[in-house]
Amino acid sequence: MKCFTSRVLLSVALSVLAVLKADAKPVEYGIKAGMDSTTVSYSGSYGYLGNGDFFNQYIKSRTGMVGGVFVTFPLAGVFSIQPEMLYVQRGWVFEIGDIPMTGADDPTIIGMASAKSEVRTSFLEVPILAKATLPLAGPVKPSLYAGPSMSIKLGADEKDYLNGQDITSLAVRRAQAVAGSTSKVFLHNLKSFGLGLNLGAEVAIGHFLVDARYGVGLMDLYTSSGDVADTMKVTDRVMSLMAGYRF
Fold first, then answer.
1. What whole-number distance in Å separates Cα of residue 189 and Cα of residue 184?
2. pLDDT per residue over 145-169, tens digit each?
3. What distance in Å separates the CA atoms of residue 87 and residue 215, rounded to the nearest whole number?
4. Which of the given ranges, 18-32, 125-139, 164-178, has the highest pLDDT on average?
5. Rounded Cα distance, 205 and 228, in Å
6. Which residue from 34, 114, 143, 155 could staple onto 133, CB 3.0 to 4.6 Å apart?
7. Can you say how many angstroms the Cα of residue 41 is from the centroid of all Cα atoms in its chain?
């Protein structure tokens, strides 16, 4: 009896495995690339330079490239898990006009001036997305997804302009005098690791796909300088549009 029961259980197990194997969908992988637009929000204050509301009114978005690879692991029904590895360019622009210049900083500039700082960053981003694909007949397959992402800073740079003239080298010297560092004004406090949340939609037609997503940072990008007057926090928001191919 015991031997018979074991044989029955083994037969059932093998039958279940055979059914699962027969119904299993193949693992898919592909590539995607496109553009993104990033902006940031400031909160807190940075000493005499002002608070978050002051900075936010002069913040503009910056456009960059995004691209990488993905793998889709099917789950039960319409659900799947999709890890990705993306190279992303981000950053933002701080631009302010009508600054009174007395000539103390530069005797050639007296009167009203405009200033601009452009922060340019690049990251390796690894989103882990939970997807639900709408079960429609035909080649068009729309999907909705959401999930967390981890990002590691690959590089960062800052360009500073006054009345359209590149004054980055002058800004660096001022930062060195104030902070005792060779880093630029903001970048010496920019964190190297971040966490975010992505929400988006994908439309696949055969092997081709279009992907639109919105990402929000869950961590402060800025490390306090240690000054008691420095309570600044910076978070980013990203909108991306990509096209891809699933093999």
1. 9
2. 999 999 999 998 888 887 777 777 6
3. 15
4. 125-139
5. 55
6. 143
7. 14
**Could you identify the residue written with the tokens 């009896």?**
1
> Domains in the chain and their CATH numbers?
23-93+119-150+184-246 (2.40.160)
> Where do the H-state alpha helices sit in the chain?
2-23, 52-56, 168-179
User: What is the rounded CA–CA span in Å between residue 118 and residue 57?
Assistant: 15
Q: Indicate the SS3 state at residue 170.
A: helix
SS3 category, 57: coil
Rounded Cα gap, residues 16 and 56, in angstroms: 59
Name the H helices within 24-124. Answer: 52-56
pTM of the model: 0.75
Please name every residue paired with 71 in a beta bridge, in sequence order, or none if there are none.
29
